[in-house]
Q: What sequence folds into this?
């Protein structure tokens, strides 16, 4: 089985996340993609992040229509700061031995990947899938053959812009699924400009 894993703060999840997941699924031939919202991301621990239960629920809402997408609360459920290394070890322990894990990240995350906790351990556990902007070239790292670069769609959407638009009561059309937008307004998320970003 080829299993894709897409982690992130997802504050909120938007079409950019969904499109890169689908691009990775089709290009690599993944059987399933698990979305794993972070609990307390160590790189953002001093930043005001929306409560995990809301971020998790928005991911569930956004992915429910795609039969290849599932959602895990494992990072939200685990106490303390969230480290990708710990998540992948925990995940691998639960999966059949023949499962291939493809961990999907964006190009920006790849640029800071070697600042993550024990990146070499991560690379020993999974195939790293880097979604790059069309035309951008990265060289394969010497001695590492399990980093896969694939061209993703150009999606100029950011969580920061969405949060700002919500606080200004501006249109979110084309940025997030309508059900996620309804959830945001129903729970009064991002209504203050004091929210991070």
A:
């Amino acid at each position: 089985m080829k299993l894709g894993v897409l982690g992130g703060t997802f504050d909120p999840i938007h079409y950019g996340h969904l499109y890169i997941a689908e691009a990775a699924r089709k290009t690599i031939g993944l059987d399933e993609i698990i979305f794993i919202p972070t609990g307390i991301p160590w790189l953002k621990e001093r930043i005001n992040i929306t409560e995990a239960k809301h971020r998790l629920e928005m991911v569930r809402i956004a992915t429910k229509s795609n039969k290849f997408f599932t959602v895990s609360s494992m990072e939200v459920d685990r106490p303390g700061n969230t480290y990708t290394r710990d998540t992948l070890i925990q995940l691998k322990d639960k999966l059949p031995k023949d499962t291939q894990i493809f961990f999907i990240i964006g190009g920006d995350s790849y640029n800071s990947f070697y600042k993550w906790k024990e990146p070499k351990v991560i690379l020993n556990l999974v195939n790293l899938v880097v979604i790059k902007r069309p035309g951008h070239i990265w060289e394969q790292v010497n001695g590492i053959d399990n980093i896969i670069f694939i061209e993703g769609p150009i999606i100029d959407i950011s969580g920061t812009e969405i949060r700002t638009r919500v606080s200004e009561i501006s249109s979110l059309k084309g940025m997030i699924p309508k059900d996620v937008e309804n959830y945001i307004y129903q729970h009064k998320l991002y209504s203050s400009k004091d929210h991070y970003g």
Observations:
- The domain at 2-154 is CATH 3.40.50.620 (Rossmann fold).
- The first helix runs from residue 15 to 28.
